[in-house]
Design a protein that fits this description.
The strands form three sheets. An eight-stranded mixed β-sheet has the order 2-3-11-8-13-6-5-4. It has a single domain (13-315), classed as Jelly Rolls. It has seven helices and 15 strands. By secondary structure, it is of the alpha+beta class. Helix 1 (28-41) packs across helix 4 (119-145) and helix 2 (54-68) crosses helix 4 (119-145). 25% of the residues lie in helices and 25% in strands. Bound molecules: the ligand C=C1C[C@]23C[C@@]1(O)CC[C@H]2[C@@]12CC[C@H](O)[C@@](C)(C(=O)O1)[C@H]2[C@@H]3C(=O)O, 2-oxoglutaric acid and fe (ii) ion (FE2). The ligand C=C1C[C@]23C[C@@]1(O)CC[C@H]2[C@@]12CC[C@H](O)[C@@](C)(C(=O)O1)[C@H]2[C@@H]3C(=O)O is lined by residues 83, 91-92, 94, 96, 104, 165, 167, 192, 194-195, 265, 302-303, 305-307. This is gibberellin 2beta-dioxygenase. It holds the Pfam family 2OG-FeII_Oxy. It catalyses: gibberellin A1 + 2-oxoglutarate + O2 = gibberellin A8 + succinate + CO2. It comes from Medicago truncatula (Barrel medic). Residues 161-268 form the Fe2OG dioxygenase domain.
């Protein structure tokens, strides 16, 4: 008989890993090398000494938990026009479900109506700080890749009409005895890749994030509230001509403690053209792996698909030999 362990689903292998931990205050050329290596091998890494003030993080965490502690009727009133606002269990528009409640906000105006607890000011301060961190990391990446214009990636998310998002995910404890469906009982946020350029994720000290470096194998990541977990999104995979990998990940629930994660998704303006700069075409990658497209085109496809569907494959150049 095969028995699922609390954090596994039948047939999956669970192998914990330690993500690269990168100290942003270390010597710059070393930091750059470590970031490039992590993006090639894991698509994920943690950063410490990131410069985001502790009080900004703790205030954001406080108002986030306060928001989810409100009565359901109040939370449901936070409908900010699709896809923004509060949601519970439904993810996206195509039938995906998970043991999660969330608040999805426009990162350029991360506010909620009837804000009685400084939610908007605390969350705006947080968003500004992580956006700066995202820019710094994107510039280090460009330098490490040898791209002549080191602001090539960061300018996308600093443009006024950038399409970046901020998402609060709250995973209440879920008693595994409640399970009625062995395929979904402990999945808070199902398997997917992030469509945007770069994600900066933070969670409280409760485990839940898992990444998949190999099909059928899930690697739980140890939470570190002092660090930010950074991951490569689909657009960055495209703009590095496949050198950096946008890795599939998911979040699982546990039966003892609430988990809250907050993700900043750095995205370009809708009309931005996404294509790898010529320096990314090398003897190892002698042609463009992906067709050029706009973020609006990619986003439209993303929202027409299920959470776990691969979007990036649809933009591969057909001359490519698998
Ligand atoms: C099912 C879906 C939810 C999602 C849009 C999509 O159609 C496919 C991608 C999903 C995702 C995953 C990463 C982010 O959490 C997110 C905000 C995004 O940009 O793409 C979500 C979308 C969502 O929940 O609206
Ligand atoms: O909660 C997490 O750790 C992951 C959430 C996530 O992947 C997302 O919001 O896109
Ligand atoms: Fe994600």
């Amino acid at each position: 008989m095969v028995v699922a362990s609390p954090n596994s689903i039948l047939g999956e292998r669970i192998i914990p890993i330690d993500l690269p931990m990168i100290d942003l205050s270390a010597e710059k050329s070393m930091v750059i090398k470590l970031i490039v290596k992590a993006c090639e091998e894991y698509g994920f890494f943690n950063v410490i000494n990131h410069g985001v003030p502790h009080d900004i993080i703790s205030k954001m965490e406080e108002v986030g938990f306060d928001f989810f502690a409100k009565p359901m009727e109040q939370k449901k009133l936070v409908a900010l026009g699709n896809p923004f606002g509060y949601g519970c269990k439904n993810i996206g528009f195509n039938g995906d479900m998970g043991e999660v409640e969330y608040l999805l906000l426009n990162a350029n105006a991360p506010s909620i109506p009837n804000d009685s607890s400084n939610f908007s000011s605390s969350v705006s301060a947080y968003t500004e700080a992580v956006k700066e961190l995202a820019c710094e990391i994107l510039e280090l990446m460009a330098e490490g890749l040898g791209v002549p214009d080191t602001s090539i990636f960061s300018t996308f998310i600093t443009q006024l009409d950038n399409d970046s998002l901020l998402r609060f995910n709250h995973y209440p404890p879920k008693d595994c005895k409640d399970r009625d469906n062995s395929n979904s009982y402990n999945v808070g946020f199902g398997e997917h890749s992030d469509p945007q350029i770069l994600t900066i994720l933070r969670s409280n000290d409760v485990a839940g994030l898992q990444i998949s470096l190999q099909h059928g194998v899930w690697n739980p990541v140890t939470p570190d509230p002092a660090a930010f977990c950074v991951n490569v999104g689909d657009l960055l995979e495209v703009m590095t001509n496949g050198r950096f990998v946008s890795v599939r990940h998911r979040a699982v629930t546990n039966s003892y403690k609430s988990r809250m994660s907050v993700a900043y998704f750095g995205a370009p303006p809708l009309d931005a053209c996404i294509v790898a700069p010529s320096v990314m075409v090398t003897p190892n990658r002698p042609s463009l792996l992906f067709k050029p497209f706009t973020w609006a085109e990619y986003k439209k496809v993303t929202y027409s698909l299920r959470l776990g569907d691969s979007r990036i494959d649809l933009f591969k150049n057909c001359t490519q030999i698998e």
